[in-house]
Amino acid sequence: FSTDKNFCSSFVYLLKKSLESQKKEKLLSFFETRFVPQSFIELSTFLSDFVRISEGEVVLLIDEVDRASNFSIFLQFLGMLRSKYLNQLEGLEVSFQSVVLAGVHDIKNIKLSLRSEEEKQYNSPWNIAAEFDVDMSFSSEEISSMLKEYAGEHGLEIDILQLSQEIYKYSSGYPYLVSSICKIIDEKLEKDWTSKGIQKAISKLLEESNTLFDDLIKNVENHSDISELLHSILIDDAEITYNPDHSTLSKSFMYGIIKKDEMNKVAISNKIFEIRLYNYYSAQLEISKYSNFKPYAPSYKYFDEKGILDMSKVLLRFQDFIQGNYSDKDGKFYERQGRLLLIAFIKPIINGHGFYYVESQHSYERRSDLIISYGEKEYILELKVWYGEKYHEEGLEQLATYLKSRGQKEGYLAVFNFNKKKEFTSAWREVRGKRIFEVML
After folding, report:
1. What is the pLDDT of residues 73-84, one digit of tens each?
2. How many helices and strands, by DSSP H and E, does the chain display?
């Protein structure tokens, strides 16, 4: 809407059409006695009179607010509604009992998009709303309760405690993700209520295009600062303390992309978002000039005659890829993207039959554990940066302890060494009764 006149007349027209569909004859007769408003002042009077003759209180629901807030006319409209609401509280005017704004992440963050990027500032034409601090996510116990009810209705015997904890581990209780996982298992996976079934459901969910994932990626692509923040968290294992005064952090928190952990550190909201973002960033890398994976494609024999994935072959092949594709001039890029390259390399190999997620371990070593499930086997692949022999040996001990905690006899260690004179070595190591295949990258 380019003018007040167009906006006001269109608003009244839509209001009338809505009443016609509901056959509100008394309210429709009101329109026959009134001129169509041509300005916001006239629209304000029109709405006051409309509410006055209405039977009962009137609530105005406005949808798609984020999208409409790109137009200054709409922001003027919100400003008018705000003034009317305040005047009504003082008994000076008649207005809507409430105005509900839907399709908006946080009204205080509507921006005047008509200004230049440097001039943009927070705009809050409707800042009256009371604080609404309610955790809408499900706890593991609440998921357990839902599964118990479901199992009872369908006569199923399932490990409710384990399944509820697994679903929560990946979803952090995000309602849409919880319900989607359960729906996929129930309707598309023949009620495979197992840990593998949950992983299969998540894989199918991640293949979908839905508004939740669309909004996630849209916010990353539309905000370079958010993209840089997420890259730091996901790829660099950056440890960042949450600060509500930092615009990028508060914006990412507002969009539901990040959360605060118990130590007030920033983390991605849930593991499903993490995997989606890893997939997004690795896909960008795959189509760039830096990742010619074709000679190392999945057709290479990464599997034995029984179809079991040989992770040592995968890592050795990736080592060949690094040696063959990264010269000293690419060092900066490799240091920045090395671990993402490994994820992008592995994804096509396990695609369709495997599942992965990342467990970050914040420490001086910047460790991440890439957990890969393929077939009936789980692979623990630790990714770490080389900080010298002492820290490296300590890291091997930590990995052995981690393998024990997960009941694994073997593990894998990918060490990213950015020294120019490094040697590309590989070897099996025995550490505290665990076999660890170590590869220097």
Report:
1. 888 888 899 889
2. 16, 12
